[in-house]
Amino acid sequence: MVNQLEIRNLHAKIVDGETILNGVNLILPKGQVHAIMGPNGAGKSTLGKIIAGDPSYEITKGDILMDGESILEMEADERARNGLFLAFQYPVEVPGVSNANFLRLALQAKKGGEVNMMEFYGKLQKALQTLEWDESILTRYLNDGFSGGEKKRNEIMHMMVLEPTYAIMDETDSGLDIDALKVVAKGVNAMRGPNFGALLITHYQRLLNYIIPDAVHVMIDGRIVTSGGPELALKLEEQGYDWVKELAVTG
Ligand SMILES: Nc1ncnc2c1ncn2[C@@H]1O[C@H](COP(=O)(O)OP(=O)(O)OP(=O)(O)O)[C@@H](O)[C@H]1O
Ligand SMILES: [Mg+2]
């Protein structure tokens, strides 16, 4: 079995709308953490949502393979059950459903059966401890009235409890204060290991000081235009995207 998440020549458009992805190629080996950077509107969030199975987009060409198997025919919930996790750029508020209950149901759906409550609370406690967080967040309605930073930290908490095989984190660092950023990085780093791969979408090199990526990819106009190591993020911070945009035109 190929242990990787592979995006193969992916072209996609909004259903009844314009084309956003123009041939994305990207391989995330299990056990690695990769960063995706790129200017506003490049298609980063769209890529994340399409991997997670958002039905507002239509794939016109290419494939997404998880451990060698195409996942295109799977609905979003089936992809989640199979170990995919997307932490949203803008987490949705779910008034009326407590944070802990939502998470328990998600875990139950993933496991396909009743969740052992002791085990569930054990995982919750461990995640809260790593994230230096208080239990009071569990009884509140999911994301309802959460501050921007609390929403982001909560996404990481969910990820830690659900233990996905592949996680996509869309600007999890945006809106976090410097202490929260370190704590969230600690959570992600705690997940690292041979059975976990992650794509971190970010605008800022700063996050990558705390979560050192195995590779950095740059997306422009719906394609990965160049890739490199952590030094690429530093170069972008210093020089901006103009030089990559030129690569996009010539390449
Ligand atoms: N459902 C949609 N309806 C209309 N336009 C869309 C939709 N989804 C994506 N787009 C457009 O596709 C382009 C890519 O959007 P996307 O959110 O993927 O960019 P991004 O790289 O994540 O940008 P940012 O860094 O600002 O988050 C944008 O021009 C956006 O307006
Ligand atoms: Mg985005």
Automatic annotation (TrEMBL):
Domain ABC transporter: 5-246
Record-linked SUPFAM superfamilies: P-loop containing nucleoside triphosphate hydrolases
PROSITE patterns, per database record: ABC_TRANSPORTER_2
Pfam family, one: ABC_tran
UniProt key word ATP-binding: yes
Domain of life: Bacteria
Keyword Nucleus part of the UniProt annotation: no
Assigned keywords, A-Z: ATP-binding, Nucleotide-binding
Family note: Belongs to the ABC transporter superfamily. Ycf16 family.
PANTHER family (UniProt xref): ABC TRANSPORTER I FAMILY MEMBER 6, CHLOROPLASTIC (PTHR43204)
NCBIfam families assigned: sufC
Annotated protein name in UniProt: ABC transporter domain-containing protein
Phylogenetic classification of the source organism: Bacteria, Thermotogati, Deinococcota, Deinococci, Thermales
